[in-house]
């Protein structure tokens, strides 16, 4: 079933979509929620007990604070990538979806790594320790195929020319973020061509670029307490790299010494 403008206005008792701030569509057998691409002011949204499989239409709901999606048909946690730019989202109920899997602990860490601003997940309060652990051990959420393009279209960010050049969009947006943070912009040759054959190296670079973009976007909206969590986690990761580097250096030195002795 498709959620229509008429149904939304009737449930919300509103005269236009822009004025709808809260909406309850619990148990309406919904499969199509594309209407939300036109509802950028929605703050509290209840969509539990439906048949929703894609969260792409929610990518432009930048005012969303609470989202209830329990018992739907969301197939993969990759759908959470559509919620990354919703910087005000604090409450998410996602339980009893196929994407939750059987390892609920890992599921929770993965969700919190993707959406570290959440204060409550599945009706359970999120702790600072959980966020710190999630940033280290949660799995990376990869954007679904065509997900980036879908989000850009819903948010109405780029013009037609930019939409036809995802490489240009990624480069421009990344450099905007880097400039705001006092970092040097990257040249176009640092970005792999999207028209070239897809290689393992290219895919790896793109994943790292998307991850960096997401992190830099998040940093702009974090408060002091949240920034301290990121700082602590970053220090721990850097210490790990330093220890690995020193171990490798010692190993090479030992090997070199042994070769000289022989």
TrEMBL record:
InterPro entries in UniProt: Leu-rich_rpt, Leu-rich_rpt_4, LRR_dom_sf, U2A'_phosphoprotein32A_C
Protein name: Cilia- and flagella-associated protein 410
UniProt subunit comment: Found in a complex with CFAP410, NEK1 and SPATA7. Interacts with NEK1.
The entry's keywords: Leucine-rich repeat, Repeat
Source organism (scientific name): Anabas testudineus
Name of encoding gene: CFAP410
An annotated GO cellular component: ciliary basal body
Repeat listed as a keyword: yes
Pfam families named among the record's database cross-references: LRR_4
Domain of life where this protein originates: Eukaryota
């Amino acid at each position: 079933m498709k959620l229509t403008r008429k149904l939304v206005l009737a449930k919300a008792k509103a005269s236009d979509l822009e004025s709808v701030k809260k909406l309850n569509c619990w148990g309406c057998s919904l499969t199509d929620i594309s209407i939300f691409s036109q509802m950028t002011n929605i703050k509290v949204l209840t969509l539990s007990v439906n048949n929703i499989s894609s969260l792409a239409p929610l990518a432009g709901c930048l005012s969303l604070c609470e989202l209830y999606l329990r018992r739907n048909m969301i197939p993969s946690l990759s759908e959470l990538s559509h919620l990354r730019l919703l910087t005000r989202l604090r409450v998410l109920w996602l339980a009893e979806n196929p994407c939750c899997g059987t390892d609920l602990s890992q599921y929770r860490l993965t969700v919190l790594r993707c959406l570290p601003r959440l204060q409550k997940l599945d009706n359970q309060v999120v702790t600072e320790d959980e966020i710190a652990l999630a940033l280290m051990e949660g799995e990376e959420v990869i954007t679904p195929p065509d997900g980036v393009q879908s989000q850009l279209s819903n948010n109405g960010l780029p013009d037609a020319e930019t939409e036809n050049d995802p490489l240009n969009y990624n480069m421009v947006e990344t450099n905007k973020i880097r400039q705001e943070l006092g970092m040097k912009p990257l040249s176009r040759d640092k970005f792999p061509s999207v028209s070239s054959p897809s290689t393992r190296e290219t895919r790896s670079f793109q994943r790292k670029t998307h991850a960096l973009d997401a992190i830099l976007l998040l940093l702009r909206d974090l408060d002091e307490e949240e920034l301290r969590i990121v700082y602590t986690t970053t220090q721990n990761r850097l210490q790990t790299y330093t220890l690995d580097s020193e171990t490798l250096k010692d190993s090479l030195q030992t090997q070199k010494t042994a070769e000289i002795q022989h």
